[in-house]
Amino acid sequence: MKDHYIIAIGRQFASGGREIGHMLADRLGIGFYDSEALRSEAKTLGIEDGIFDLFDEKPTRSFLFSVVMDPYAIDSAVNSGKVIEAQRKVIQAAADKGPCIIVGRRADKILEDNKAETVISVFIAADIEDRMARFLEREDMPEKQAKRFIERKDKERASYYNYFFDGKWGRADNYTMCFSTSRMSKDKICDIIIDYIESL
């Protein structure tokens, strides 16, 4: 097994990707970074919340809207490259601490050229019916509204990922492994990923 590896998880909304990330981190005994953990890391590095918010998983329209709402601070940050650099700095700081799971935030692309660690990129998907059922377990809204919400969140994630990169969010040829939690249990998915890591 490689001493230093990063598992970067991309996922459709409500597909169970974040939960799989937690399960892997627990089973492997390694760090776990989602949006909240990365926000905490950003604060440790002295990065302001406003800049962190700009590289949250939002559609490109959010960048434009933010510039309109705060043209001085935000437009300056975007134009000077501070947003992209801050994102790279936070993701790299997390990776430098040792093997870990990073959920979302284009970690696979940010780290792909770094020779210091092996990056395993994983994409988690699921049928829309299963995602709706999972979402409605924690949210109270009509099914049609829930479906529209889930579809919008997927579009946001795709737009965010593709804004900086090559339009391959969710495409199998862009990842080391792709799974559907509608076709395979989360435990089995974790087994396969761990087997792959142990073979490196």
Low-confidence stretches: 59-75
Strand segment count: 5
Roughly how much helix do the residues carry, as a percent range? 55-70%
Sheet having the most strands: 5 strands, parallel
Radius of gyration: 17 Å
How big a fraction of the residues is strand?
5-15%
Shape: globular
End-to-end span in angstroms?
5 Å
What letter string, H or E per element, gives the SSE order? Answer: EHEHHHHHEHEHHEH
Which class best fits the helix and strand makeup?
A: alpha/beta
Number of helices: 10
| Average pLDDT figure | 85
Oligomer: single chain
Strand order of the largest sheet: 2-3-1-4-5
How would the blueprint of this fold be written?
Elements: E1 5-11, H1 17-28, E2 31-33, H2 35-44, H3 49-54, H4 60-69, H5 73-79, H6 82-96, E3 100-103, H7 107-111, E4 118-125, H8 128-136, H9 143-164, E5 177-180, H10 186-199
Parallel strand pairs: 1-3, 1-4, 2-3, 4-5
Helix pairs in contact: 1-10, 2-6, 8-9
